[in-house]
Design a protein that fits this description.
The chain has 13 helices and eleven strands. It is α/β, with parallel strands linked by helices and 341 residues long.
Length: 341
């Protein structure tokens, strides 16, 4: 089987250079997997980057678009451009069956809006959500939503919980994932009416491992396998965690280079520091799927580099190989039927 991936070549802070380099890095790591790439954007610019990587160029096609979605493009304007823009054409390739998945590091709002219109939603799901797999003391946890939905109803949070549970089953291979709702306290009486109503509904599900409310520090503690919240709080939590990691790295680098004793200590502990850097590297966790769509759409961080974008591509490949959409759809349908009964 040849896995065909549609790439938004113009997305991300570094644009085509990062996207093409990332695709090449993913190709080098794709042992035993046959790949084909479709790049959507300004053909002359993309072709120039592809010339640097002959092997990648040989398995790639470039589809030109005169309409480019930028970070300044409003979602409504992106939807009006429809399938004529670079991003719309890339998503449309998945809808038409010409590609197995689409990956973009571009405008999140435009990407989400176009994906919802072109790919459509799974039955029983009203809004897509952005999850991420984050490292914890106990392994990994799924956190969603990370920015797709700023304002949420209790029903939205319930949908996110159902999708997050199915996502953890599929990607983390956990038979019965535990699920928690992010709140200002773990006590049952804490929180606003939205999280209270969502929690009440989730407690009624029979085949669902709901653990109640969790707090912000429970995310990295790994208290539950899935943490559910609205996109406003989720995005702030993610950026706060990323910022803390960068701060600790800065403090370590500053301390270890400020004195001879520190430099000697670093030389002795260098293997341990390399392992720490590897485990906390946000690029290795880059790549979040839009959950709830009928096709695989992966969102890369806009500020990532080739390593991070390659990881987003790997996420897409893994989802294609695991028949992700069908398995998620079946699990959500099962849980939804329980809720309705």
């Amino acid at each position: 089987m040849i896995i065909t991936l549609a790439l938004d070549a113009m997305g991300g802070d570094a644009g085509p250079e990062m996207v093409v380099s990332g695709a090449n890095a993913a190709l080098q790591d794709a042992h035993g997997v046959s790949l084909r790439f479709l790049f959507f954007g300004q053909e002359s610019v993309v072709q120039e980057e592809l010339r640097k990587f002959p092997k990648l160029k040989a398995i790639s096609s470039v589809i030109h678009s005169d309409i480019i979605i930028t970070n300044q493009t409003k979602p409504a304007a992106a939807v009006r451009s429809g399938r004529k823009s670079n991003l719309g054409m890339a998503i449309d390739a998945v809808e038409k069956g010409e590609a197995h998945a689409v990956i973009s590091a571009g405008n999140t709002g435009a990407y989400m809006a176009l994906s919802k219109v072109i790919l459509k939603m799974l039955s029983g799901i009203n809004r897509p959500a952005i999850p991420a797999i984050l490292p914890t003391f106990n392994g990994k946890t799924v956190v969603l939503d990370l920015g797709a939905n700023v304002d949420c109803t209790p029903e939205n949070l319930v949908e996110f919980a159902l999708m997050g549970e199915a996502f953890a089953r599929q990607l983390l291979k956990i038979d019965r994932p535990s699920v928690g709702l992010l709140n200002v306290g773990s006590e049952e009486l804490k929180g606003n009416a939205t999280v209270q109503a969502a929690a009440h509904f989730l407690r009624e599900l029979s085949d669902f491992n709901f653990q109640g409310f969790v707090e912000g520090d429970d995310i990295t503690a790994g208290k539950t396998d899935v943490v559910v919240t609205d996109g406003f709080s989720g995005n702030i939590a993610l950026k706060a965690i990323e910022g803390t990691v960068h701060l600790i790295r800065h403090f370590l680098k500053e301390s270890l280079s400020s004195s001879l004793r520190g430099k000697i200590g670093y030389a002795i502990a260098k293997p341990a520091f390399k392992e720490l850097q590897k485990r906390s590297d946000p690029r290795l966790y880059n790549g979040a799927v839009f959950l709830g769509l009928k096709g695989i759409a992966v969102k890369s961080h806009g500020g990532t580099d080739a390593v991070g974008f390659a990881n987003a591509i790997k996420v897409a490949i893994s989802m294609v190989q695991q028949n992700f959409i069908k398995n998620i759809e079946e699990r959500v349908a099962l849980l939804t039927s329980q809720a309705d009964s």
